[in-house]
Amino acid sequence: MNWKRKDLLGLEELSRQEIEFILDTAGSFKEVSTRAVKKVPALRGKTVVNLFFEPSTRTKTSFELAAKRLSADVLSFEVSTSSVSKGETIVDTARNIEAMKVDCFIVRHSISGAPLVISKAVKAAVINAGDGCHEHPTQALLDLFTVKEVFGKISGLKIAIIGDIYHSRVARSNIWGFTKLGAKVIVCGPPTLIPHGIEKIGVSVCYSVAEAVKNVDIVYLLRIQKERQQENFFPSQAEYRNFFGFDYKKFSFEKNKFFLMHPGPMNRGLEISTESAEKENSLILQQVTNGIAVRMAVLYLTVRQVH
Description:
alpha/beta; Rossmann fold; globular
């Protein structure tokens, strides 16, 4: 197929074929990171801007490395020292930077829809690096890529997503991605952290971790997002850890042969025990590695649409 989108704002809007095309393109780019010289000239002369209004380690670093391995120039925007702190709007900020002839904005923002607003205001490509509680499409794409790498397929697999579903943009993107590619998804967490009516987008709901992990291929743990919780959604961290924290002392790997995933950063000792994070069936670091190839693919496909 021919890729025709200059923006990647979410997986909800993508077809199965488009998602598979990104994953196939990422497969061709993964080999680049194994070379002695980890660069290809695919985006030479292009300029990519990291427009991050929220803190980030993995995503920001991964996008920066991906852009540099495609030979693009990279500008990292610091909100704390910018005119945003003086009251400038995000649209004015983007337009002013675009006037310097940049080709792509990678946007992370605490407000859902911010990347969409910017995409309508600029001609440059816009990639959503996480917006509010909406979506985090490249995280889901690297997760899909990792699962496909391990199993050779996604269709027919069973995935349990456990934790703070309500506030999680990662969960939403993964639900769209996994279901569109034919996997069965179960979401699990306290009732207060499961969005009402989430079954309408093709998932089943479970409130017991022991039940959720039965006969699954992947257990995907989510971070408890304290920064987005304005209310007390569970009595205490100790109670959450007791009922929903993942620990192999409670769930035997020998009896349940699944792989473990987490988008990071991990709250060790809360949603995941250190022992679980370090188990041989953990795919967490493999996810991080694959993030570069997936983001290279997304940058390559979108930036080429900018004229």
